[in-house]
Amino acid sequence: MLRSLVCAAVLFTSAAASASDVETAAMLRDKAMAGSSAYAIVESLTTEVGPRLAGTEAEARARDWAVAKLKALGFRNVRVEPFDMPVWERGVEEAAIVSPFPQPLVLTALGNSGSTGAAGLQAEIVKIADVDALRAVDPKVVAGKIVFITHRMAATQDGSSYGYFGPIRRSAPSIAASKGAVAILIRSLGTSSHRFAHTGGTAWAPGVAPIPAAALSAPDAEQIERALSRGKPVSVKMTLTPRVVGVRPSGNVIGEIPGAIAPEEIVVIGGHLDSWDKGTGAVDDGAGVAIATAAAKTIMDAGLKPRRTIRVVLWGAEEVGLYGAQAYAKAHATAKHIVAAESDFGADRVYKFGHRVAESGKPLAAQIAKLLEPLGVTYDRSNDDRGGPDVGPLAAQGIATFEPAQSGLDYFNLHHTPDDTLDKIDAKKLDQNVAVYATMTWMVANSDVQLGPVGQ
Predict the structure, then answer these.
(1) Chain-centroid distance, C-alpha 327
(2) Backbone angles phi, psi at 451, to 5 degrees
(3) How many CB atoms lie within 10 A of CB 436?
(4) What does the pLDDT look like over 184-221, one tens digit per residue?
(5) How far apart are CA 297 and CA 41, in angstroms?
(6) What are phi and psi of 419, to 5 degrees?
(7) How would residue 6 be classed by pLDDT, with cut points 50, 70 and 90?
(8) Strand partners, 336
(9) What is the pLDDT of residue 15?
(10) pLDDT of residue 16
């Protein structure tokens, strides 16, 4: 028994960081909390570039901005890794109830929406309870009509309400089209009561021709519900003129702190550089770009040379289909990634640290969690956290992931809306995020612990 305990103690020691690394990580944590470069970075991105719809000239300017910024901050091996993608652009967006109670509506096209044509279309509204009811409905009920689906998404700290109601935006338009509907209107996937709509992507099943698909502001969705409750047919005229413009270039921007001993071993942190086009993409995901970049910069500014390479990846084209994430995972399929993490849930404080690692990585993860306790961060030991959307393709390859979970209580008031602007960001909350990322990044980058592969 004694021998077993001794062996276990030796195993734990060999699988965790040294006292010196723990001390250094605590120093980095406290340094970031005292003030980081994150706010200046997101201010620069949102002011000098603004909205960055994937595949457009604006996203290209964002890549130029990112290359210049990473070089100016002292990163090495700064580069763009290009890929091609299909590009969709927004057009005219107008709608109104024409009968029985004429009045304007506020809406926005969903990404990949079809077009009504310049003349618009007019049809009767048919309310469907939810996606399951839409799947089950007789096509005769919706053929030639505008499907309307609403919901009551609530604010949650972990964003689970968004996940639950997500199929309304992602799947319902394709289902409605397959049943002969001429268009679909949904209540925005958001928690704001303000009169603006939340955009976001939708997907079309193979062989299904896109129909006009739009999100209504919450007040306008409720107005349609009240109009329908009067028992009279409700007709809407809508004009959406988005277009698919063909294949264009996008790209991932990369900057590194080369490893001093094992440069081939890579610790990936990052955010996505593109945004939707309604706001300036400050919280989604300018904040993530800033957090990851500032965390690595904190390590550089301390004069530290990590054992492993720290790679900051600013993914392109996340919002419209994870094109950058897929391109990165394919291009680097044989690379020795140790762990990956993405900040893509806004700019609020981190409240929980989770991960998905092999058994060999759990002692180091526990040490990191202990270091984060003074920041008010709890520890999720479930070992089932995937690290952010752009990290997904790497996780599918068995790469370990870290997930510092940010509070999402206010996130869906802003996400994918015109209100996603810099004034919503608190610099001190950004610093807390940077402290978390700098701490965990250093602890892995300066160790020889293997965190993966992780079983599928």
Answers:
(1) 16
(2) -95, -15
(3) 29
(4) 999 999 999 999 999 999 999 999 999 999 999 999 99
(5) 11
(6) -85, 0
(7) very low
(8) 265
(9) 53
(10) 81
Q: What is the pLDDT of residue 1?
A: 37
The mean pLDDT of 143-161, rounded to a whole number, is 96
- 3-state secondary structure labels for all residues of the chain: CHHHHHHHHHHHHHCCCCHHHHHHHHHHHHHHHCCCCHHHHHHHHHHHCCCCCCCCHHHHHHHHHHHHHHHHHCCEEEEEEEEEEEEEECCCEEEEEEECCCEEECEEECECCCCCCCCCEEEEEEECCCHHHHHHCCHHHHCCCEEEECCCCCCCCCCHHHHHHCHHHHCHHHHHHHCCCCEEEEECCCCCCCCCCCCCECCCCCCCCCCCEEEECHHHHHHHHHHHHCCCCCEEEEEECCEEEEEEEEEEEEEEECCCCEEEEEEEEEEECCCCCCCCCHHHHHHHHHHHHHHHHHHHHCCCCCCEEEEEEEECCCCCCCHHHHHHHHHCCCCEEEEEEECCCCCCCEEEEEEECCHHHHHHHHHHHHHHHHHCCEECCCCCCCCCHHHHHHHCCCCEEEEEEECCCCHHHHCCCCCCCHHHCCHHHHHHHHHHHHHHHHHHHCCCCCCCCCCC
Residue 57 has pLDDT above 60, yes or no: yes
User: Cβ atoms within 10 A of the Cβ of 442, count?
Assistant: 30
Q: What is the spatial distance between Cα 406 and Cα 410, in angstroms, rounded to a whole number?
A: 11
Which tokens is 441 given? 């990044």
Check: CB of residue 16 under 8 Å from CB of residue 449. yes
CB 272 within 8 A of CB 315: yes
pLDDT digits (tens, 9 = 90+) for 342-364: 999 999 999 999 999 999 999 99
- Tell me how far apart the alpha carbons of residues 340 and 400 are, in angstroms, rounded to a whole number: 6
Strand order in the sheet with 350-356: 76-89, 243-257, 308-315, 262-272, 336-342, 400-406, 350-356, 378-379
The pLDDT of residue 11 is above 90:
no
CA proximity to 379, closest of 390, 367, 388: 367
Q: The tokens of 192 are what?
A: 């704001």
Peptide bond into 418 cis (omega under 30): no
Residue 349 to residue 233: CA distance in whole angstroms: 47
Count of all residues that appear for the chain in the document:
456
Answer left, alpha or beta for residue 400, where phi above 0 means left and psi between -120 and 50 means alpha. beta
Residue 282: both structure tokens together: 């400050």
